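Students often ask what a holo structure prediction actually looks like on paper. The answer is less mysterious than it sounds. You provide the chain, you provide the ligand, and the output is a string of discrete structure tokens encoding the 3D arrangement of the protein together with magnesium ion.
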Amino acid sequence: MDLDDDSQYRSGFIGLIGRPNVGKSTLLNRLAGRKVAITSDKPQTTRNRIQAVITTPDEQMIFVDTPGFHKPRGALGERLNSLVLGTMRDVDVIVFVLDGAKTISKGDIFIAGELEKVETPVMAVINKTDLLDGAKIDSQVEVARHLFPFKSVMPVSSKFGAGVDELQGALLAFLPPGPQYFPDDVVSDQPERVLVAELIREKALLLTRDEVPHSVAVLIEEMKPREDNELVDVEAVIYVERESQKGIIIGKGGRMIKDIGSRARQDIEPILGSKVFLDLRVKVEKDWSKNPQFIKRLDYQ
Ligand SMILES: Nc1nc2c(ncn2[C@@H]2O[C@H](COP(=O)(O)OP(=O)(O)OP(=O)(O)O)[C@@H](O)[C@H]2O)c(=O)[nH]1
Ligand SMILES: [Mg+2]
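The corresponding structure tokens follow.
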């Protein structure tokens, strides 16, 4: 045994995997201590692989948020699932996030089947414990134990933080000796431009329903500070798939797009550290979610 092992720096990648809407991105933000990924009550919010970094003098943990694993409908869904499958193989440990407030069911069993195909160790998290009483938490932990040979099953509330420190502590055991991949001050690998686009999409998700959230994509066309003052000009386009959706996003008398814009601006300004002039437009890109070329233009890596 190498006695120097204890003094070695440890680092590793931790993949957050699970069905849509179980709270993976909420957990990522809680772990990161700030908003790195957008969240919403609509399934399939996350469309890219987002990393959040926690650095200490002894270790670096890189959490990888993934899109919810689901039955794909078209090119976008398939792309999202393939991101998840790739992450399962690439990381040092997987955290399988389950929604404690829902019945553990077919979708979870399907994911468990995919996990059996990889060598990566897997922990389970029963999320949303703030919505459950003690007995229900215990029974959900028990059901999860039968789903897969997890290293452990831990109850957490990503929304309020209960159990999250314990989870982080337990994950340290899976970090191999390794380098510090990111500098001390990096919290996320997402470029500012992507985060800005995502915050606009988040407000569109918040304010729309039915099939509209799935049909929204946002691209930043221009983002530059003005020379004469501290204002940043952001030009963004909200893409939808149909003419009728364009009407919904614009809203009566332009009310909806105004609302999306002002809510997004409030979130973007602290991130950019300056006032923002947000120019939002809406365009129809017919059935873009079935079009691999358009999907490539979005920054979904
Ligand atoms: N009560 C409660 N709600 C939570 C908790 N964690 C997440 N949520 C809510 O669950 C919904 C989904 O959260 P997300 O973090 O966007 O879920 P996700 O798993 O990333 O979803 P996808 O990106 O679509 O796969 C949001 O409305 C969250 O506020 C929790 O611990 N307690
Ligand atoms: Mg998410």
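The chain is about 35% helix and 20% strand.
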